[in-house]
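Late entry, evening session. Most of the bench is empty. Finally got around to the prediction I had been postponing all week. Sequence below, unchanged from the version circulated by S.P.
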Amino acid sequence: MNPSFHLSPLLEEFYQQYLVDQDVAEFVRRTSVRYSIGTLERLASSGSRNARRGAVLALGRVADYHSNAVVGRALNDSDRGVRSLAEAAVVKIWMRIGAAAQQRRLNAIAEQLDDCDYERAARLAGKLIQEAPWIAQAWYQRGMAYFHLAQFDAAVRDCHQALEINAYHFQAASLMGQASHSRGDLVAALESYRRALRLNPSMEEVRSRLIQLQRTLKGHEPPAA
């Protein structure tokens, strides 16, 4: 018998109540009292549909980067609801790495990106990379800044490094595709978009880009002899 069988019903009850009242703070409070991170990770992988949904929702609120692989794999869950929750959860988890001061710096860089101050974002991310080169999100953030500064080669390099560190970083794969496309490397863009969709099949905008790029490349093929 699946060891998660006896653990699922209570989590399912908590999740169903959340769907009714939309009180995520209460859902997290109740879940945290009864379930450890390790148990939530097991349920995210092997529980019932609603247990997986509840586990992923909870992990997105309480887990740190150590849960990245579990939530990253949930991006390919058979249930659309789990996939959607995993997409929202994993990007939060990517920010919860390193010391508290480093996490604050990641948030500060994100604010600069939101404010379109890309030069400052690139500088701040570069300083964090020098201090903690193992933080994939800092590489991605600098790659995003470089992309908006039209430094596409640098953006590709940083996104590649982010993926080397965090193999589930679908945003880095997508951005690498955009940067490759912008510098005219259509084949590399195609591969990056495919990689992004393997990591996160729910990225419909990336799927549209991929289809359009495939049509473009097909139109460039020489006629058959």
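Two things to note before I forget:
The chain has two domains: 8-93, 100-219.
The domain at 100-219 is CATH 1.25.40.10 (Serine Threonine Protein Phosphatase 5, Tetratricopeptide repeat).
Will write this up properly tomorrow.
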